[in-house]
C-alpha cells in the first residue's frame, strides 16, 4: 500500500507542472523556457542531496562505464517526456493535457513485453519476456474511460489544430516516460537510490536542455523573471519532489509487473489535482455532471487497482507464514 500512497502524493506534485505550464503560457512565456529551465534548476538541488550523502563518485563511474544506456534512456525518459508536454501547453489547457497524459497508464502496461525477467529453476536460470498483465490493463482502461468522459465536454470546444498539437505530443510523452523509467531501473539494477538515478538522468540529458536554452536565447529572447520563478517552483515540486516520490514507489515494486502497473495508475490523480488547481487559481468552470461521473470512474479505477494489489500482497504474506 505504501508505494500506492507515494504514487498518489507524487501525482499531486506532478499536477503543479500542468497548472504552472498553463499559467506560463497564458502570461506569454515560451514552452522552451518551461522545458529547459525545469531541468537546469533541478541540477543544483540534486547535486547537493547526492553530495551530502557522499554518493556522487559511484554514480559518475557507472555513467562512464554504461554511458550509452544512461544517455539514451535519460533522453527518452526526460527529454521525449517533458519537451512534448511543454510544447503542448501552448495549444491546450492544463486539464486537457493532464487528461491526455493518462494514456501513460495503459502505455506502461503495453510496454511490458519489452522487458524480461529471470526465472530460476533447479538446474538453470533463464530470462523470459514479461507478459502484459491483462487484469491491470482492464483496470487501467476503466481509469482511461473516466478520463475520456471527463474531457469530452471540454474537447468539443477545441479546434482541430489545438487537438493535433495539444494532444498528440502528450501521447508521445506518455509512452516515453514509463519506457525511460523502466529501462533505467534495468540499467541501474538497484545499485543507486532515487536521488542518484534522477541526478544521473538529469546529467545525461543536460546537453539537450543546454542546447534548448541557447536556442531559446537566439529565437525568443531570455525568460521573464515571473516565468523563471514559476519554472523554479516546477523544478522543485515536480522535478525533485514528485519525481523522487514516484521513482521510489516504482523501485519498491519493480520486480512485480502487476504492482508496477498499479503504481503507474496512481498518476490518474494528476487529472483531479490539475482540475482542482485550475478551478482555484484560474477560476475555471466547475465540472459538469458528465465530468463528475468521469472523476468517479477515475477514483474507482484507482481504488480497485489498489485493493487488488493489496489483496495479492496479503495472500502472499499469509502463504509465506504458512510455509514457515
What keywords describe this structure?
324 residues; mainly alpha; two-stranded antiparallel ribbon; 13 helices; 2 strands; disordered C terminus
Can you offer a commentary on this structure?
InterPro entries: EmrE. α7 (about 135-155) runs parallel beside α11. The protein contains 13 helices and 2 strands; from the N terminus they run ααααααββααααααα. The protein is globular and about 55 Å long. It is mainly alpha-helical. The longest helix has about 35 residues, at about 290-324. A hairpin with a 4-residue loop joins β1 (about 115-120) and β2. The chain has one domain. The model is unreliable at about 315-324 (pLDDT under 50). The chain is about 80% helix and about 5% strand.
| SS elements, strand count | 2
By DSSP (H or I, 4+ residues per run), the number of helices equals: 13
Radius of gyration: 20 Å
Q: Structural class from helices and strands?
A: mainly alpha
Low-pLDDT segments, ≥5 res: 313-324
Strand fraction equals under 5%
Main β-sheet description: 2 strands, antiparallel
Specify the overall morphology.
globular
Largest sheet: spatial strand order: 1-2
Q: What is the share of helical residues?
A: over 70%
Give the count of structural domains: 1
Q: Give the overall pLDDT as a whole number.
A: 81
The sequence of SSEs as H and E is HHHHHHEEHHHHHHH
**What's the end-to-end separation, in Å?**
24 Å
Short description:
By secondary structure, this protein is mainly alpha-helical. The chain has 13 helices and 2 strands. Strand 1 (116-120) and strand 2 (125-129) form a beta hairpin.
